[in-house]
Write a structure and sequence with these properties.
Elements: E1 18-22, E2 27-32, E3 41-45, E4 50-54, E5 57-58, E6 65-71, E7 74-79, E8 88-94, E9 101-109, H1 116-121, E10 122-131, E11 134-143, E12 154-157, E13 160-161, E14 170-177, E15 180-187, E16 196-202, E17 205-213, H2 215-223, E18 230-238
Parallel strand pairs: 1-9
Antiparallel strand pairs: 2-7, 3-4, 3-8, 4-5, 6-7, 8-9, 10-11, 11-15, 12-13, 12-16, 14-15, 16-17, 17-18
InterPro entries: Ig-like_dom, Ig-like_dom_sf, Ig-like_fold, Ig_sub, Ig_sub2, Ig_V-set, Immunoglobulin_dom, Zig-8
Protein name: Ig-like domain-containing protein
Organism: Caenorhabditis tropicalis
Length: 239
């Protein structure tokens, strides 16, 4: 890919170089810098040469773009709501002695279309928000059969089943009513270690959220006496 050939680096890019995201959802482009030194980084858009960010400052007038520092050596370019015209090549330029440049290609996809047959039977939705220092995920499974009581939901994180026996980290509550099941999972004392792709699944229906906790924004909010912040990506899919 021509985009990735624009990299100038003495070592392989440790971050994801191709990012796929469904339109109208957030996108996150990562850039890793050497952990043993303080380096300024700048993000530019190749299509028009626009400087989007430099350090922790944003230079574009498009409010959807922001930059955050996830850890000592990982900078994240955040796109709040991806549109098809955002597809293209983005460069992370590191102000080191080698003038390192990493390239990331963003591809914005059309939302998948679920089959009508599956929607007529059951549907699954997953929503996420922050409450204090907890991440709250609400999974709603709806069946057109109001007498359907056999609705069992499986929760996973990055494809691994969540262990609800760990009550210090996870709390699960379930409500059932006439073909509707609402399961609420709370992630207690959430940190960046809890980042991941969370999913709830029933039968052939699956909904997932990519949860990304912004450490820098959370620290600012906590200092001001407010709640921590998260950014989430909602993806509806069929198995």
């Amino acid at each position: 890919m021509a985009c990735l050939r624009q990299e100038r680096s003495r070592q392989e890019n440790p971050a994801q170089t191709i990012v796929n995201v469904v339109a109208e959802n957030p996108a996150y482009l990562h850039c890793s810098v050497p952990p043993d030194a303080e380096h300024e980084i700048a993000w530019t858009r190749v299509s028009d040469g626009a400087l989007l960010t430099a350090g922790n400052r944003t230079f574009t007038r498009d409010p959807r773009w922001q930059v955050s520092k996830k850890s000592a050596n990982i900078w994240v370019l955040n796109l709040r709501r991806a549109e098809h015209q955002d597809s293209g090549c983005y460069l992370c330029e590191i102000n080191d002695k080698h003038n390192t440049v990493y390239a990331v290609y963003l591809k914005v996809l059309d939302p998948p279309l679920p089959s009508p047959a599956s929607l007529q039977k059951k549907s699954t939705r997953l929503m996420a928000n922050m409450s204090g220092d907890e991440v709250v995920l609400n999974c709603t499974v709806t069946s057109t059969d109001k007498t359907d009581d056999d609705i069992d939901v499986v929760w996973t994180r990055d494809g691994t089943t969540i262990n609800f026996n760990n009550t210090e980290k996870y709390i699960l509550k379930v409500k059932r009513d006439a073909g509707v099941v609402i399961e609420t999972m709370r992630i207690r004392k959430a940190t960046m270690e809890d980042d991941g792709n969370y999913a709830c699944e029933h039968s052939q229906q699956k909904a997932s959220q990519i949860v990304h906790i912004n450490k820098a924004e959370a620290q600012i909010a906590n200092f001001a006496g407010g709640a921590s912040l998260i950014a989430v990506l909602l993806v509806f899919s069929l198995l």
